Structure formats: structure tokens, C-alpha cells
């Protein structure tokens, strides 16, 4: 089994790499922080990975992402490609408007970054009529929350793209899984100050994701009670749901990310 995972230097991406390492997978790991990325690779090799190549790359760099994904594929076809890298941004109590520069940076990472990761793999996977594409979305993409308007919009965009790709790529032998996590204990969720119902470890989340990918699930959403609640919220009258959501005290700090030239 050969996988490429973005955002492998931390949180869910790192945990997923380790879970596949235990199965002796060949791993292509991407991240920006070279030290943390190398630490993941070492831990994967210790856990039994067949190999763990690392690439320091920013998912916003379309050219460099295309080069890395194609080189990794040409070396040996990828069975699974996981577009996981992402950042969170939102509103702190009393704040009305998200900083436009932070929003633009987040959109480039969470939306364009996913496109930059997935697009280069589509043609070679279709040519071989084999491969799985996994896109990490969020419960925030199922029903928008008032605490993180642009993050919800970005995740909803990736959900729509994944759903569409699933239909268009299936006749070519390529499957697409949309991963919809609830709260997972990672550096990202640690920055959000809120009640985090159903929060689970990154290791548990990775095991659930692997099980879903092994079964070629179209949507891998967890915990299920939260997915059901978010789907129900999407059906209820918006003003009622907004009113309930506003009762919670939530602080989603702004991302320090800014656009790169
Ligand atoms: N944790 C949750 O509760 C939760 C819930 C729902 C969805 N998610 C989604 O799950 C994914 C992973 O989040 P996480 O919780 O594991 O967060 P995390 O621990 O903060 O890890 C984020 C990863 O994304 C990478 N990344 C960020 N910006 C990047 C960029 N411009 N280029 C390349 N890599 C970049 C980071 O790399 P460096 O650190 O090396 O920069 C890091 O490896 C995200 O898409 C997030 O939206 C998380």
C-alpha cells in the first residue's frame, strides 16, 4: 500500500501516517515544518513503514505540489492520496469581521491547497483505473457555524468538490472519500476555546479514517451523533438553529497565516 499524505507533520495527518506505518505501508509525507515532518517519518519507520519519503512543501504552491505528486506517483503508483493539510480561523467573542488577509490565506490553503494536491493525481490514477482520493473536510462544512464563517465556507467547498469528483471519477476506476471529522484533539482544536462534544484522540480518528478508506466509504464522518446532528441542523429552520448556536461561548482565534507572494 502506497500513500501520500499532506499535513503529515502534525495532528490527524501524522496519526494517519502512523496507523498505515503499522501495516508496512510505503509513505510519502508532506508538511512545512521540516523538523516535525522528519520526526513523523522516523516514527513511521520505527512503527514498521516500508519507506517514508518526506517533502517540505506549501500546498499553496501549485507548481511544486504538481512536481511532488507526479514524482511520487512515477516512482511507484499511489494507492491512496490524502488531502489533509489545513488551518482554522474564526471569530473571537465580540469580533464582527474576520481579517480579510487571514481569510484569503486560509482559503488558499484549505481550498486551493486541496485542489493543488488532488489534481495532479487524477490523470495517472484514471490511466491505471486504480486509486483512492481522500479529502479531509469538517463538520463545519455540513452546517455553517456562526464562529468561523470563512472556514465553514472553505470546508463546504471541499465537500462539494469531493462529492462531484466521486461521481465523475468512479467510471474511471478511482474512488473518492470525503472525511468529515468532528473534534479531534490536535494543535488545531487546542486553539479553539469551546465545548467540544465527542472530542477524540488523533489516533482514534486515524483508525476510523483507515477503516473507512479500507471499505471505500464515500463519506467517513465521525462521531456519528455529531454528523446526524449537523445534518438535522441543516434541515431545520435556519433562524432557529442560529439562535441555538449563538448561545454557546466559542472563541476561534484568527489564523496567523497570511498570503504568500
Ligand atoms: N482537529 C479537529 O478537530 C478537526 C476537525 C475537523 C476537521 N479538521 C481538519 O483536519 C485537517 C488536519 O487538521 P489537524 O487538526 O490535524 O491540524 P494540525 O495539527 O494543526 O495540522 C495541520 C497540518 O496541516 C499542515 N499545513 C497547514 N498549512 C499548510 C500549508 N500552507 N502547506 C502545507 N501544509 C500545511 C501543517 O503543516 P506544518 O505544521 O508543517 O505547517 C500540519 O501538518 C485540517 O484540514 C482540518 O481542517 C480538523
Structure description:
It is a single chain. This protein has 261 residues and is an alpha/beta fold. The chain has a single domain, classed as NAD(P)-binding Rossmann-like Domain (Rossmann fold). It is built from nine helices and nine strands. The strands form two sheets. It has a seven-stranded parallel beta sheet with strand order 3-2-1-4-5-6-9, with helices on both faces. Helix 4 packs parallel to helix 5 (149-169). The longest helix is centred in the middle third of the chain and has 29 residues, at 100-128. The protein is globular. The structure holds NADP nicotinamide-adenine-dinucleotide phosphate. NADP nicotinamide-adenine-dinucleotide phosphate is lined by residues 6-7, 9-13, 31-33, 36, 58-60, 84-88, 109, 113, 136, 138, 181, 183-184, 186-189.
Short description:
With 261 residues, the protein is of the alpha/beta class. The protein is built from nine helices and nine strands.
Assign an overall shape. globular
Counting structural domains, the number is 1
Strand order of the largest sheet: 3-2-1-4-5-6-9
Note the total helix count: 9
Structural class: alpha/beta
Ligands present: NADP nicotinamide-adenine-dinucleotide phosphate
> What is the CA-based Rg, rounded?
18 Å
Which CATH architecture is right? 3-Layer(aba) Sandwich
β content, as a range?
15-25%
* Count of extended strands: 9
Key terms for this structure?
261 residues, alpha/beta, Rossmann fold, seven-stranded parallel β-sheet, two-stranded parallel sheet, 9 helices, 9 strands, 49% helix, globular, binds NADP nicotinamide-adenine-dinucleotide phosphate
